[in-house]
Amino acid sequence: MAKLNQNSIRQKARELIKNTPGGIRYSQIVNSILETDVETPVNTINGSIWNLDALFPNEITKPARGLFKHIDDGSAAESPHETEEVSKNGKAREEDFYQSFSDWLKNDLDEVVISTPLGGAALGKKWGTPDVIGVYKPLASQLIKFTPEVISVEIKIDPTQSVVAFGQAIAYKLFSTKAYIVMPKTIQAEDQSRLESLCVLHGVGLVLFELDKETPNYTLKVTAQRSAPDMFYVNEFVDSLKRYNQEMFEKLFG
């Protein structure tokens, strides 16, 4: 099989971009060409496609770092989604993932000592009620004690709700030391790239998952950064939680 020249590489890349709704990442283009044309040097491919948006400005755009998208592709903005997504196990609801993520936050991510699902508007405030709440606190065996830290989580099953999820996570930082956003892997590549950048800038964690109630396969994309919450809102949140569910309060902070 002969090596591809620069024009052939670009033509293949243009076809890949055109045929990939929502856009395709730079590395995916390179890997796809390498799979079909193994004798073509990777450096030749890199040198041919890095500026496709500049070479074909009426055809290709670069809406996010490392992401190429066909200009006629309006799927990211126009494609409708149901609020109840279909998973491998049938209709999925956000609350179907509360417990599994609570367990993952504690056992796999090891961010908390104790965690529990909360969700909905249990505390009477939509933007003040995380879907999952966890607490990182000193153990009885630890000699050096410290102030317990609240970790809040916002889960969405609708891949178009990234902006809403980010706004809620930022609101949780008023009373949380760390906040996480959990989004389905069906999120558009452009939205994911922008959300990742926002999370890095503001210290919010980002986790992606499969819409499968049995095996969600949570994957950490951005690690949440610790920040000092406003103690007024910390006490307001804890007081609301205690009034809502004394047993849950004792479980988390006792």
Arithmetic mean of pLDDT:
89
Number of strands: 11
Unreliable segments (pLDDT under 50, ≥5 consecutive)? 76-83
Largest sheet: 6 strands, mixed
How many distinct folded domains? Answer: 2
Return the structural class: alpha+beta
The number of distinct helices, counting runs of at least 4 residues, comes to 10
Radius of gyration: 22 Å
The first-to-last residue Cα distance is 68 Å
- Read across the widest sheet, the strand sequence of neighbours is 6-7-8-9-10-11
Kindly describe this structure:
The chain has about 250 residues and is an alpha+beta fold. The chain has 2 domains: about 5-80, Arc Repressor Mutant, subunit A (Orthogonal Bundle); about 85-254, no CATH class. The chain is built from 10 helices and 11 strands. The protein has helices at about 5-20, 25-35, 40-50, 50-55, 75-80, 100-105, 160-170, 190-200, 230-245, 245-254; strands at about 25, 60-65, 65-70, 85, 90, 115, 130-135, 150-155, 180-185, 205-210, 220. The strands form 3 sheets. It has a 6-stranded mixed sheet with strand order 6-7-8-9-10-11, sandwiched between helices. A 3-stranded antiparallel sheet has the order 1-3-2. A two-stranded antiparallel sheet has the order 4-5. Helix 1 (about 5-20) packs across helix 3. The longest helix has 14 residues, at about 190-200. The radius of gyration is 22 Å and the shape is elongated. The protein starts with 5 loop residues before the first helix and ends with a helix. The model is unreliable at about 75-85 (pLDDT under 50).
